[in-house]
Amino acid sequence: MTGRFITFEGGDGVGKTLQTRRLTETLTARGQRVLLTREPGGAPGAEDIRELIVTGDPGRWSPLAEAMLVFAARAEHVARTIRPALDAGTWVICDRFTDSSMAYQGYGRGLGEGPIHTLHGLLGIDPDLTLVLDIDEKTGLERASLRGGADRFERMGAEFHNRVRTAFHDIARANPDRCTLIDATGTPDDVHARILAALTERGLLA
Ligand code: TYD
User: Fold this and answer.
1) pLDDT tens per residue, range 161-205
2) How far is the centre of ligand 1, averaged over its atoms, from the C-alpha of 206 (Å)?
3) Pocket test for ligand 1, best of 100, 105, 143, 171 (most atoms within 8 A of CB)
4) Cis-peptide into 58, omega within 30 deg
């Protein structure tokens, strides 16, 4: 029996990290084996590549090189962490996956959809469910900046983050079988309740 693969997506500061933890706790309390992981990263080599992606000048990488780096990290993550866990029947909850590459590199950096679809096709894996957390990008960036130490992408400017948000809406609309758009406003409890409702609706939670 293979585990379920659930990804969380959304712009910077939507509260994904907190919500991935909350869902992991809830599923674990119900007796499910769950692995929580994140991108870029989630395997030793992928964490090394993460440093190249999230630090330094906004213009450090050309868009195609940046996309290939996130997919190199992802290939490592899938091979060493995600696939083995799913094969063992463990559910995997992942903070960001390919949709982030579509949003940040495809739309944000202007690479376009084609290269992202091509690179994703090489992985041979798709999430069972993607929760797209949505908040207006200004509130998101304000929340993110409260954490301090803006990473490379948080310094890319308002138009970039506008394109990222548009991308997540387009992705959710184009993939209704896989994606649920979650209103990420309100308290963490409110958002967690919306996420549990989405899992129930998809038959992933009794
Ligand atoms: P993350 O650690 O999720 O940061 P945050 O908690 O601020 O959302 O991701 C780091 C950055 O990497 C984030 O700004 C988005 C970016 N990113 C990409 O540009 N492409 C990708 O494929 C992924 C997975 C992340």
Assistant:
1) 999 999 999 999 999 999 999 999 999 999 999 999 999 999 999
2) 32
3) 100
4) no
- 3-class secondary structure, 74: helix
Does the pLDDT of residue 87 top 80, yes or no? yes
List phi, psi (to 5°) of 16: -60, -45
Residue 53's pLDDT is 96
Indicate the residue type of 160.
F
40 Cβ inside 6 Å of ligand 1: yes
Q: How far is the CA of 40 from the centre of ligand 1 (A)?
A: 6
pTM of the model: 0.95
Residues in the chain: 206
Alpha helices by DSSP H, the chain: 16-29, 44-54, 63-77, 83-87, 98-101, 113-123, 137-146, 158-174, 188-201
Asked whether 137 lines ligand 1 (CB < 6 A), one says no
Ligand 1, atom 7, lies closest to the CA of 12
Strand 5-9 with 179-183, pairing: unpaired
Are the beta carbons of 13 and 139 closer than 8 angstroms?
yes
Instruction: Compute the distance from residue 1 Cα to the ligand 1 centre, in Å.
Output: 31
- Residue 136 scores a pLDDT above 90: no
Annotate 53-72 with b (16+ C-beta within 10 A) or e (fewer): beeeeeeebebeebbebbbb
Helix, coil or strand: residue 14:
coil
